[in-house]
Write a structure and sequence with these properties.
Structural class: mainly alpha
Strand content: under 5%
Helix content: over 70%
Number of helices: 7
Radius of gyration: 17 Å
Low-confidence stretches: none
Oligomer: single chain
Length: about 140
């Protein structure tokens, strides 16, 4: 099915971009990736596709945990894919910001590996760890370029 192919393209493709952030943080192509949200914008195309092919997306009730649980239990694969691409886009954008911010604050890249991996896998946990890195390096409140 087409939606499986599109989902697999984005779900697998994002791994390459996270690897680039982790392994080649100062290369020119990495600097272009973190300078503007090109990758999240590309993911947004898949996100819009999935939103446009699922039913009931805009009638979802986000006001309670039980409503969200019911929404996910009754979701079509395209709706779940849209939700996952949403995570992929924002977690990667956040990872790009963290890498760029760490470079502006002259944080050694070795300190960034754990926060980036955690952002990739656990989103907000990576931000928490990055904040701890900034605090231990005494760079939390230093101005960036």
């Amino acid at each position: 099915m087409l939606y499986e192919t599109i989902f697999n393209f984005f779900n697998s493709g994002i791994l390459l971009f996270w690897l680039i952030l982790l392994v080649f943080p100062k290369k020119g192509f990495t600097q272009r990736i973190i300078a503007f949200p090109w990758v999240p914008l590309a993911i947004a195309i898949g996100y819009v596709y999935f939103l446009s092919t699922t039913k009931g997306t805009f009638s979802a009730d986000f006001s309670s945990l039980s409503s969200l649980t019911e929404m996910f239990q009754n979701a079509e694969p395209q709706g779940v894919a849209a939700g996952w691409l949403h995570y992929l886009a924002f977690d990667f954008w956040l990872g790009c910001w963290m890498l760029k911010n760490s470079q502006e604050k002259a944080i050694k890249h070795l300190w960034m590996i754990l926060p980036l991996l955690c952002t990739f896998m656990l989103g907000p946990v990576g931000v928490l760890i990055y904040t701890l890195v900034l605090m231990t390096q005494k760079k939390l409140f230093t101005k960036t370029i």
